[in-house]
Every structure is written in structure tokens, then in C-alpha cells.
Amino acid sequence: MIRVLLAEDQALVRGALSALLSLEGDLDVVGAAADGEAAWAGVLSLRPDVLVTDIEMPRLSGLDLAARVARDAPGTRVVIVTTFARGGYLRRALDVGARGYLLKDAPAAELAAAIRQVHAGGRAVDPQLAAEAWGERDPLTERERQVLREAEGGASTAAIAAALGLSEGTVRNYLSEAIGKLGAETRVEAARAAREKGWL
């Protein structure tokens, strides 16, 4: 049996995934979590073979969760199931150690097959997204991404500096670099462009 832990903040989707996967004779859904931190606690206590997680979740994103699992619980493999059909998200997911990336509108049989493939040591990635992901490279550094995330909500340079432990001049430099790389006019426009590409 392949032991599976689900991480999905929408109760209806979480329940549907659990019910569908439980119909598979070789898959055992050992737990389900509504946020990233609860999922991490589940990984530590249940030691599942495969963690199936969304990207956007409260308390800890699916990408941060995948990175933590790869670093601290390498016996668990990660499959991301999301609505984000963006190459940038796929690249980041693979970069942090996810072994699978599927869209939520994929058939249940495809998810079950992906779990088996990842459990066996392979990868399972939506082929159309894979082609898109390698078409355009994310130009942002991790620090530029952090600064843009803060700016996206309308934070001032001083507030961003305080939140990230940087000087205001350094924040201005990161913002300027990111705006230039994205061909944007303003920090908000740059954040929006990066978000649309899946780079934030």
C-alpha cells in the first residue's frame, strides 16, 4: 500500500480527493490537512510515502512545504495538485523538490497514476505545462521575489525594509532591479506581472 497524506485548504476538494483516492486498491489516505503547518505536522507524525498538496494554503504554502519535506523528510515524496497552470510555478515546484505537478482538472485516474509513478521514484508532470515552463526563465532572485511580495500588498519601502531586515536603500535597489527585469513601470505592476507568470 502507498500511504498518502493530503494537504488542501478547501474542505470540499479535500474530501473529494480523499474519497477518489480511497477507491484505488493500492492507495491508503492516512490523513488530510487544511493548511501547510498541519500538513507538515502530519508528515512528521504519519510518515506518508507521498504528500499531495495544493500551492496556495494558509500558514505555509505548498512550495514552502515541499522544500521543507525535501530537506527534512526526504522519505516522503511530494506531488503538487493545483489550479495554477503556469510554467513559473512548475519550475519553482521542481526546484524545491516536488516530484509531481498536476492540475486540479486532471482526471482522478491521472492523479492516482502520478502518485504511483512518484512513489516508484519517477516524476509526473503535466506535459503541456512542462513545455511552457522551459520556454521562459524566471529572471528574479529570491530576494527580489521577497521584496516584490511585500510591495504587492502596497507596503512602503520602510515597511518592506523592516519586514525583511534590510536597509531602505537596499530595498529600493531590489525593487529597481525587479522592475527593470520585468519591463514594468511601477513596483505594483512588476509584482502583478511576476504573479501572472507564476514567479511570486
TrEMBL record:
Modified residues (4-aspartylphosphate): 54
Residues covered by the Response regulatory domain: 3-119
Domain HTH luxR-type: 133-198
Top-rank taxon: Bacteria
GO biological process, one term: regulation of DNA-templated transcription
GO MF term list: DNA binding
The keyword Cytoplasm is assigned to this record: no
Keywords, alphabetical: DNA-binding, Phosphoprotein
The protein's name: Two component LuxR family transcriptional regulator
Organism: Deinococcus grandis
